[in-house]
Amino acid sequence: MKSIFISFDQAYYDQVQAILSINHVRGFSGWESVIGRGSVTGEPHFGTHAWPALNTAIITIVTDEKVKPILEELRELNATSERMGIRAFVWNIEDGM
Amino acid sequence: MSLYESSVRKPVMTSIIFIAVVILGLFSYNKLPIDLLPKIETNTIMVMTTYDGASASDVETNVTRPLESSLNTVSNLKNIKSTSKENRSIITMEFDYGLDLNVVTNDIRNKLDLVKSYMPSGAGNPIIFKLSTDMIPVIMLSATANQSLPALYKILDTKVSNPLARINGVGSVSISGAPQREIQVYVDPIKLEAYHMTVEALAQYIRMENLNTPAGSMDVGSDTYALRVEGQFKDPSEMNKIVVGNYNGKTVFLSDVAVISDKHEERMQESFTNGVQGASIIVQKQSGANTVQIARDVKKMLPEIQKSLPTDVKLTIINDTSDNIIRTIDSLAETVIYALLFVMIVVLFFLGRWRATVIIILTIPISLIAAFIYLALTGGTLNIISLSSLSLAIGLVVDDAIVVLENITTHIERGSRPKTAAVNGTNEVGLSIIASTLTIIAVFLPLTMVPGMAGVMFSQLGWMVTIIITVSMICALTLTPMLASQLLRLDPKRSKGFNTVYGPIERLLDKLDEKYAQLVNWAVRHKWIVIISASLFFITSIIPLAVGWVGTENFPAQDSGFVSAVVELPVGTRMEITKDVCQKLYTDWKKKYPEIDIINFSVGQASSKNIFGSLFSKNSSNVGTFTLRLVNLKMRTRSAFAITDSIRNDIKVIPEIRKSTVTAGGGMSMMGGQSTLDVEIYGYDFAQTDKVAAEISKRVSKIHGLANTTVSREEYTPEYQVDFDREKLALNGLNIATASNYLNNRINGITASLYREDGEEYSIVVGYAPKYRQSIEDVENIMIYNNQGQAIRVKDLGTVVERYTPPTIERKNRQRIITVSSTVSGTTLDKAVNDIKAELKKVDIPSDITTTIAGSFKDQQESFGDLGALLMIIILLVFVVMASQFESVTYPFIIMFSIPFGISGVVLALWLTGSTFNVMTFVGVIMLVGIVVKNGIVMVDYINLNRERGNGIIRAVVTGGKSRLRPVLMTSLTAILGMLPLAMSHGQGAEMWKPMAVTVIGGLTVSTMLTLIVVPTIYTLFAASGVKRQHKKQKRQAIEKAMSIENK
Predict the structure, then answer these.
(1) B599-640, pLDDT tens digit by residue?
(2) Which one of A48, A49, A52 has the shortest CB-CB distance to B424?
(3) Which residues of B touch A48 (CB under 8 A)?
(4) Cβ contacts (< 8 Å) between B945 and chain A: which residues?
(5) Is B959 part of the contact surface with chain A (CB cutoff 8 Å)?
């Protein structure tokens, strides 16, 4: 079991959800408004007057074989535009109930 | 989820809501009536009191003065004026506009009740008379006739007046100028004397012969029959056979001593239309009825009525109030369409995208149509004010949408998806849109609270624009992002044709951006040069106003296609002579001015039954009143004002005419006539004030640009008076009452009885034949019989002398007054006032006489005072709105610098177009405050944003300025071009809104150009010093900290 943490601009929520459901991922937890800034170029997402954009973050726990296709498709989505700024990180999950 | 986010996410809901608004608005529009102006309650109430037998000065002391002092305590009273003439006192009270006159009327009634017991016993009950705009005739017809003239009144009454009165909404239809039938018994006094008869006896005989008497009922067989004597005349000629006495055993018939004439009443007003005598028919509406609808119905009915009339009777429309309304509204509607077109072109020019243009243009109909809902709900009408508010608003409503769409487009161009771009783009500019809308509302909402006439006019404008702007803001925050997210594409494919057309424009705009960025870059590095030259420009631009090259006036005069003229011959001139002079004027004018469509004039005394005529228009045997209707504005080259001036000169050369007033516009509406200037002379003594008035009038009439100088006090009227010697009267067993009654019966005639025909009644009047009452001798020879049957001539009882009666006494605010009034024509109000002031200084005025200048000048001072106060409040409010948005007082202060340049633009525009500074211009200036500030807000807000994003001051200013250039230019251009049709229009009523449009265009053009340079420059100045101060503070704190550590 692995967990995938995905952080993206609020506007791509639907696309990200679509990727998850194509890969038969049903369960997830999310934070609708998350602030953040990219390490190098990414435009700040602060929800302020100067930087009005906000991110959404999703964490989902999937079986190991699903990780690769999901990341693949997220990378594809991110590549459609320079400014997408989708980030995904994977952890190991040790236990659960 | 924010408003724009949910609307982007729910496109169906958003569109359905707006479609519903549009449907509701169109439904309301369909129901809206058309009118010229918003409903205006008049501000005048009159109190009329009769006091029979009293002279003017008696009426003044015993009736007018006590009434005035009591009525003066009515609240909200502005002016109280009165005229006291023989037998009658009329008090006119003027109130502030916008009051509930019903409450005022009650108040007046209470005050009158209080004072009633102190009035002289002979005085009648004071009658309260409320003037209302409903009394202005809707339509005035003239009926001309040749053979049918004697019966004209009856024909018109049954065939025209009755059907018209049945039209829905028509209040009354009155006929004037048509001779009413009257049967005169013209007595020959010499024969009467020979037969020892009196006029009274003849009248008595006629009365006794003209009777229908029931004589009871009788039973005949099985039936009951009523018995009646039908003695009434079946034909006036029957009267010839009335036996009026015996002389030497022979019967004397009425025809032996008198001639029966079945004609019309002797003293009457005669009215001529295009030289043919006829009558005028005046249609008035019921209170609250719609003028245009009534006029339409009347006109629809006319052909049918015309068919039923005898062939020689012709009906013509002399004055149709709805004509002016319809033409004015049509030409305004035209400007609205043009404005829409111009705005569309501007948007397309700057965006170069059809879809974007459509998205923005959609906000226009939606917000304008929403305003119709407001109008329908409040019972408003489509009028000059509501339509010009639409025209004004067109340029403003797209502003918000443009800013939003422009920002969304930038986001898309930078790579965002349309939906993200829509939400984020709107979010970025949302606050500044709300703020700029609030500043506009801060300008227009206070307009709804202005007192006085200006308030009545502009409160609708204030509401309309406030609503339109609010709706447009909501549109920009919901509909625009929603449509943008649906319609805009990342890289729309452009056709080749489009590229060849738009390519150069795009390059031009890009170049403009570059050049502007360079200019701002230079400006922020040479702050002081920019600031000093801008201040110099401001000071020089104000010069035309300071030096007086730009004149002032109250309301602009309006060419409504009417000219009215009143000519007065010397007092006491016979009607026939007045008529001849008027006929001559008619033929001269008809030849000289092909622009004249219809000339209508009336001469003579209005009958006592015609209250309207006797109260409101001057009528007397020596007065002729003209109404000239000109052809449609588009079909003539000379304006009504030019024709009026020329007519004035025509009248001047006619020696018979002593006094004349010619005004363009005709008093049909409360505004739009030419300005008048009155010099009011207050003083008790008749002789003294007369002398001063004559002197002032002489001087004022010589001032260039003032016409129609008249003195309000009437001349002394000559009259014959019979001075009876009481001793001689008593000796003959007579008294004044009997003697004067005899005189009245012979000269004026005695109404003996009524002749009935077809259900109508006509007076039978017995009196001397006209040729026996034409000289003093005729009066002196009148025989008066005493109780003993002895005949005594008037000359044996007293003397007949010619005397002058003192004129009407006029008072204003409880002081006697004479007004020297004149019409401003060919100069501006302020110049004329200065000239009059200079002349007044030269006149030697006794110490107990005071003079003031009133008329349009006073109205102007009042409205300018109101509007000036409003301007201050609005500037303050705009400042408050901006300060709260920026959470700072510095930025609003910077933005406020665009206002003076707006003023420069206004002055220059007025000077170049030769316009005057008037109430409409003032309103334009007020609106300008909101519009010019908007540009500043958009710029400063974006510069601030750039600084928050971490840019340095100069970089933030230059890039911010550059990226805001297009929206600023676009919004300014839409506002300017949206108003251009108003400024250029030559249609009916254009004079009214033209100055306002010229003001806004001039002010906005200059202020936009300068704001683009000056605001960034001043911003840098303030921001730089702010940063320096901050640095100093930090430095000081660091030093203090270091020192405190050291101390430890």
Answers:
(1) 888 887 765 444 445 555 566 778 888 888 888 777 788 888
(2) A52
(3) 948
(4) 49-50
(5) no
CA distance B38 to chain A (A): 44
Nearest CA to B419 among B12, B10, B14?
Answer: B10
Beta strand B243-247 pairing with B250-253? antiparallel
Size of interface A-B (CB pairs under 8 A): 32
Q: Which long-range contacts (CB under 8 A, 24 or more apart) does B204-208 make?
A: B204/B752, B205/B242, B205/B243, B205/B244, B205/B254, B206/B239, B206/B242, B206/B254, B206/B752, B206/B753, B206/B764, B206/B766, B207/B752, B207/B753
CB contact under 8 A, A83 and B423: no
Q: What are the chain B neighbours of A46 within 8 Å (beta carbons)?
A: none
CA atoms within 13 A on the CB side of B891: 20
Tell me the torsion sign for CA atoms B70, B72, B77, B81.
positive
* Nearest CB to A49; choose among B420, B423, B431: B431
Residue B93: phi and psi, rounded to 5, are -110, 135
Give the residue, B548 or B243, on which the prediction is more confident.
Answer: B243
Task: Supply the pLDDT for residue B670.
Answer: 44
User: What's the rounded Cα separation, in Å, for the pair B76 and B313?
Assistant: 50
Q: Using a CB–CB cutoff of 8 Å, tell me whether B428 touches chain A.
A: yes
Give the residue among B635, B636, B810 at the shortest CA–CA distance from B712: B810
* Partners of residue A52 in chain B, C-beta under 8 Å: 424, 427-428
Interface of A with B in 29-58 (CB under 8 A): 48-53
Cα separation, B756 vs B233, in Å, equals 8
Using one digit for the tens of pLDDT, what is the confidence trace for B185-228? 999 988 888 888 888 888 999 988 888 888 899 999 999 999 98
Residue B837 is classified by DSSP as H
> Is B416 part of the contact surface with chain A (CB cutoff 8 Å)?
yes
Cβ–Cβ < 8 Å for B263, B6: no
Q: Which residue of B has its CA nearest to A33?
A: B1
Nearest residue to B333 (alpha-carbon basis) of B1044, B990, B1047:
B990
Q: Which residue has the higher pLDDT, B324 or B1044?
A: B1044
Q: Are strands B783-785 and B791-793 parallel, antiparallel or unpaired?
A: antiparallel
Q: Which residue has the tokens 């209080």?
A: B114
How far is B266 from B185, CA to CA, in rounded Å? 12
Q: Are B406 and B966 in contact (CB under 8 A)?
A: yes
Q: Which of B414, B420, B945 is facing A49, going by the closest CB pair?
A: B945
Q: Is B945 on the interface with A (CB under 8 A)?
A: yes
A83 Cβ under 8 Å from any chain B Cβ: yes
User: Each residue of B796-823: pLDDT tens digit?
Assistant: 888 888 887 777 888 898 889 988 888 8
- Per CB-CB distance under 8 Å, the chain A contacts of B948 are 48-50
Pick B424's closest partner by Cβ from A48, A53, A81.
Answer: A53
Tokens of B35: 């009118």
* B450 contacts B870 by C-beta, under 8 angstroms: yes
Residue B426 contacts residue B477 (beta carbons within 8 Å): yes
Helix (H, G, I), strand (E, B), or coil: what is residue B805? Answer: strand
Give the pair of three-digit tokens for residue B336: 């609205």
- What are the structure tokens assigned to A55, written together? 């991110």
Q: How do B88-95 and A87-92 pair as beta strands?
A: unpaired
Residue A62 neighbours by CB under 8 Å, 6+ apart: A1, A2, A3, A4, A23, A25, A70
Closest alpha carbon within chain A to B946: A50
Residue A10: partners with Cβ closer than 8 Å, 6 or more residues away: A32, A33, A53, A54, A55, A56, B420, B423
> Is residue A9 within 8 angstroms of chain B, CB to CB?
yes
